[in-house]
Amino acid sequence: MGVVVELNDGAVRVKNPTLRDVAQLAGVSIATASKALNGRDHVHPETRTRVHEAARLISFTPNALAQGLIAGQTGTVGLITGDLDGRFSIPILMGAEDAFGTGKMSVFLCDARGDAIREQYHLQALLSRRVDGLIVVGSTTNPRPSLGSDLPIPVVYAYAPSLDASDISLVADNEQAGSDAAAHLVKRGRIRIAHITGDAGYLAATDRATGVEIELARSGLTLVGGEARYGSWTEDWGRRATQQLLAEHPDVDAILCGSDQIARGALDILREAGKIVPDEIAVMGFDNWEIFTSGARPALTSVDMNLETLGRAAARRLFAAIDGDHSGGIQKLPCRVVVRETT
Amino acid sequence: MGVVVELNDGAVRVKNPTLRDVAQLAGVSIATASKALNGRDHVHPETRTRVHEAARLISFTPNALAQGLIAGQTGTVGLITGDLDGRFSIPILMGAEDAFGTGKMSVFLCDARGDAIREQYHLQALLSRRVDGLIVVGSTTNPRPSLGSDLPIPVVYAYAPSLDASDISLVADNEQAGSDAAAHLVKRGRIRIAHITGDAGYLAATDRATGVEIELARSGLTLVGGEARYGSWTEDWGRRATQQLLAEHPDVDAILCGSDQIARGALDILREAGKIVPDEIAVMGFDNWEIFTSGARPALTSVDMNLETLGRAAARRLFAAIDGDHSGGIQKLPCRVVVRETT
DNA sequence: CTGAAAGCGCTTACAG
DNA sequence: CTGAAAGCGCTTACAG
To answer: How far is A33 from A19, CA to CA, in rounded Å?
Structure first.
């Protein structure tokens, strides 16, 4: 029960107001106060008003801990990210936060930094706080170990799927993204298309490349040079690979890059080589990272992986799981091509 | 109390184990089980072992809600950010999450998106969850309205200080950062230094410019063109302003840019103009955003605002406030110059 | 329509 | 050294 602090201006001031204080001030029992505040039936309208007024007067905020203890549900979820640092987590996190926020849920954020020990530590803390569910955001698109199937709460894996197929996973459809990108270039009349991409150890790279080749084959085309050029996700690799590409295949008319950074590197070299983009050669990136696409000359066409949507979808899927829908499997979400000036 | 599910392999399996289950299994009272688990005195060593063993057997995890209800402290804090989107929040958030994590605190993350309504909504939710304290991360370095002084918990403002001087605020020292940057260039022998920076509506821009001018004055220098060139925080502005600068002052020997993006724009133009960096002209940025500094040709010298340290410091300051240290005021944290190839 | 009582899962004096 | 009892702040049958 709260401590009465002042009654200076006639108003009641209570330090840490509890339902007890509200009830007392309204002249009713705690039970009635609870029912009035929670909109339960069988409360006299006048009583209800009086209780609400009392609550307002002393700025009563119900203790969610006590409510959660009774309900067995806390209205909180945990979000464990592999690396906050990596920018891919952020939009997912934003989408999830947004979806939960409107659902009156609060989000515990934990950064595991790709460390399994730290992940276990955070998991334990979240279980102890009795979160209603968990979203695990991977640091790459590569599949990751499951948190286990004997947890007392549902888990949704986002971005990186769980290795356990019975878990619920939501990922971006990288293969489709590759196909969409290639289709866009083909539609623009390009026929000598090269693909410069990142580290072959990333499924994001190989899946996209697969999608690209499938789509090109549909139009009877193949990649310039016969295959995708793997390297790293950097501007520097974009530059080096483009230099090499121009030397080997001066007639290339489009470069599909595995990331916006690689595309920026490509644009730099093309400009220095005197190639006009997009007239002589088209360039395209992945990720649609505004900071890179809009600063480019000309503005860069890119594939947006819709990560914020992914985060929102993960949150909704978790809601469903909390409500009893335990069907597992990997769900792939579509991306979208954002056309700017380079294609 | 938990539901016993199996005793297949002789092991006891309990669904949602509570302290009651642990006590029962160990053959002691709930009170004794509690004391044993919490390392209280006056428990027979053998009893203690038995209780711990029982807890382990059924994977007992104490309910933090119940503990919090009793303790009046929840071991949770709220982190309200102005814009998750803006990349400045992230390092601060990482630093704070790190500091709290090692302090066994869990962090509620809320994204207010610069909307006062949403901020109030989140504040209410956090108060209801009885967080022990709050960190408010601004979206720009400009001062922001206080959350009010009648909150039942301490608040630390990070990045953007509170307008109320009695609040606790931690910010990066932009003026000092400007001075440090200028000092670095002077030490490198530059004497015709220009300053191209962002939107004059940002204190980050004007404070840094002030610091630059103060430091130059110390060496008897003034900015090329007499004043800082304000524009926007973009590569494009960096390009345009540099073009203009070269036209007006072809003898400039250093460009101090207000952000790494602006610096990237400057580097592009210098390269096209045939100016050798850093031999003929030095370039320097702010923010030390790795993605821009390391991709630059040559690699960009920049000022790191130490935001992760800022986040960590904010967390520690909040700990102190929770422990009763209520001294307010704005504390300015130092930045550091990260030297690469452009200076 | 209202309120006394039990209980959510735990901790802490207080007796034994 | 151990345990019965009270209590944290709330909600929900159950009587009145």
So the answer is: 7
The tens digit of pLDDT for each residue in B2-38 reads: 666 554 444 567 789 999 999 999 999 999 999 999 9
Whether B68 contacts chain A with CB within 8 A = yes
Q: How much is the average pLDDT of A315-328? A: 94
**pLDDT 10s digits, A189-221:** 999 999 999 999 999 999 999 999 999 999 999
Q: Which of A5, A61, A132 to mutate to test the interface with B (most CBs of B within 10 A)?
A: A61
C-beta separation of B332 from B305 below 8 A: no
**Which phi and psi (to 5°) does residue A221 adopt?**
-110, 165
Taking the C1' atom of every nucleotide in all shown strands and the CA of A30, the nearest one is C3
- Does pLDDT of B56 surpass 50? yes
Å separating the CA of residue B31 from the C1' of nucleotide D6: 13
The two three-digit tokens of residue B159, written as one number: 């990045």
Mean pLDDT of B312-331: 95
Query: How would residue B58 be classed by pLDDT, with cut points 50, 70 and 90?
Result: very high
Mean pLDDT of B252-273: 97
Over residues A83-88, the mean pLDDT reads 79
CATH 1.10.260.40, applies to B4-62: yes
Other C-beta atoms within 10 Å of A87: how many?
15
CA distances from B216 to A149, B182, B223 (A): 63, 7, 8
* Cα gap B24→B6, rounded to integer Å: 16
Q: Which CATH number fits domain A74-172+307-334: 3.90.1150.10, 3.30.390.10, 3.40.50.2300, 3.30.300.20?
A: 3.40.50.2300
DSSP code of B144? B
pLDDT in the model for residue A251: 96
The bridge status of strand B254-257 relative to strand B301-304 is: unpaired
Q: How far apart are CA B90 and CA B102, in angstroms?
A: 18
| Pairing assessment for the beta strands A336-338 and B301-304 based on DSSP bridges | unpaired
Dist. CA A214–CA A257, nearest whole Å: 16
CA distance B126 to B337: 38
| Inter-axis angle of helices A235-248 and A260-272, nearest 10 | 50
Report CA-CA distances (Å) from A2 to A16, A183, A251, B76, B211. 4, 66, 79, 21, 50
A15 pLDDT higher than 90: no
- Look at A189-198, B108-117, B333-342 and tell me which has the smallest mean pLDDT: B108-117
| Residue A4 pLDDT | 62
Query: Is A80 in the B-facing interface, judged by CB distances under 8 Å?
Result: no
The two domains A4-62 and A74-172+307-334 share their CATH topology (first three levels equal) = no
Q: Which positions ≥6 away from B40 have C-beta within 8 Å?
A: B34
Q: How far is the C-alpha of B233 from the C-alpha of B200, rounded, in Å?
A: 10
CATH 3.40.50.2300 fits A174-304, yes or no: yes
Nucleotides on chain C within 7 angstroms of protein Cβ: 1-5, 7-13
Instruction: Answer yes or no: is pLDDT of A1 > 60.
Output: no
Beta bridge pairs of residue B13: B6
Which residues of the protein are close to the nucleic strand D, CB under 7 angstroms? A 1, 16, 18-20, 30-31, 34-35, 37-38, 40, 60, 62-63, 66-67, 69-71; B 28-32, 35, 41-45, 47, 66, 69-70, 72
**What does the domain layout of chain A look like in residue ranges?**
4-62, 74-172+307-334, 174-304
Please, where are the H alpha helices in chain B? 19-26, 30-37, 45-57, 64-71, 89-102, 116-128, 174-187, 203-218, 235-248, 260-272, 290-293, 307-322
Question: B225 pLDDT exceeds 70?
Answer: yes
